Amino acid sequence: MTLPARSLRSPVGIDFAAFVGRARPRVDRGLADAVEAVPAALGTVRPVVGRTLGVRGRAGRRWRPMLTLAVAEALGADLEVALDAATAVELTHTASLILDDLPCMDDSGERRGEPAAHVLLGQSGAILLSIGLLARAAELLGRSRDGAELSEEWGRTFGFGGMAGGQAVDVALGGDSRGAMRRLYRKKTTALVAFAADAGARVAGAHQEDCERLYAFGDDLGWAYQLVDDAHDLEEDAALGRAPGGRAPLRQGRRLLQRGLGRLDEVLGIDERGVELLSTLSREVVRVPGEFPLRPRRRGVQPC
Amino acid sequence: MTLPARSLRSPVGIDFAAFVGRARPRVDRGLADAVEAVPAALGTVRPVVGRTLGVRGRAGRRWRPMLTLAVAEALGADLEVALDAATAVELTHTASLILDDLPCMDDSGERRGEPAAHVLLGQSGAILLSIGLLARAAELLGRSRDGAELSEEWGRTFGFGGMAGGQAVDVALGGDSRGAMRRLYRKKTTALVAFAADAGARVAGAHQEDCERLYAFGDDLGWAYQLVDDAHDLEEDAALGRAPGGRAPLRQGRRLLQRGLGRLDEVLGIDERGVELLSTLSREVVRVPGEFPLRPRRRGVQPC
User: Fold this and answer.
1) Which of A2, B18, B101, B184 has the most crowded Cβ, counting Cβ within 10 A?
2) In order of start, what are the domains of chain B with their CATH numbers?
3) Considering only CA atoms, which of A99, A114, A112 is closest in space to residue A168?
4) Does the CB of A158 have a partner CB in chain B at under 8 Å?
């Protein structure tokens, strides 16, 4: 595979830590506002919303909303216009984690080292919590720039052809066609990352073609992230003698990351600094060391 | 209570059956399209989507999407512009029924006399089915006229301050303030009916004030429906000697219906035929006999 020219160029020297310093508090604020929006009448639910979103207790890396903000900034937009969409991305992600943890799905009692939502609220409460977060996401997307298109694209993202469909394949509700099922399974991870990038482009007022290129970039990034994450798990298992090791998924993930970064060269509304911002963020996401504040991975804690 | 003048006037003579004849096949088509949109890779899920939406097997009355279409027609819009929003309303309603039936919620194995979704797909499948229907609703609303506002309003409708919040109070996740909890509990029923009316107004291009008046009309209609429905259940129980009877909820429901109909007189963009269309539909919904194709109520079958 020939790598495109620009992604091999020497860095122009962006200050990634400064971006994180600007973006992260905004994401934190958007999520804190989502907790505030829960009616006081739901006395039992509100604190759990706070914990699940990491507003209280341990937060996830929040790299998906950071991606939305980074794309917007890379396209020259102010971070503030991307905040609602970025928050909606993290709410959607958290909603899916809450469902994944349910006894009838992956049956996990912990998330980020703390009790899962269904442990705190019961199954019915956890399901309603997930629905409530999706609802808040719909509100935020509706009031964003390009709200109608964002809502439509978001529906595709978490629906039967996206996250819910991928999870349905995962819990063995798929049909016959194995190739189509494998593609749908990937959407469980990739659909939201692709949407996160696309949403950043839309709120920045990008042309349709650029939105599509950034969607494809997000799609590659999402699957690269998953492959490398799986590879780390395999390595840990191999180190404990529980499974054969093997570097293939890691290599495959990094190749996919390179392909995704190559797509940035096709985006018309982005300059070299924008490419570098998104490249740096992407490399952090797939666990190449750097300035992005990664948390140490611990066994038994699901990827965030 | 003084009834407003117009709702006491003699009917101008609309042909309600003709409206139903125009509107119902459109709703049926919108729902059939939603089934078609499920990817073929989800071989196990697709037929259950069809059954749950009543595209295959027994259908519900579908009065909520009919309300959206009726409001649009009453405001002079073509039914076709309201179809996506109307379908989204029924998808949202069905998504909520699927969750209500789960073992961890109301634990009901039947819906409309057929096996509930969780009986057919397991709990995980039913939850994903519900999520998939909500996602399809988001898509349809996003591509409707006024899609951004519809999406925002829809998020409020099924979120913590609406349907999910009402259901959370129902499964005892509420807090201390009893008045606020009671109001939130009602939203479980009323929020979607209010949205159904509001959505019809929005796709018809109504002014904000008219949208709000029709929202308030829908809110009254929704609670009147629930009160009268509960009253029928109480009467059945009383007839079987299982509970004291009493006409109070029935009277209260009908008073609320009158209040709702009175609100139509305040709507600027509606003429007498429009008022009569919405009045007729409303009276059918709260079970005053008429031409609207009601299905006979059977014990053990939940209201649709």
Assistant:
1) B184
2) 6-202 (1.10.600.10)
3) A99
4) yes
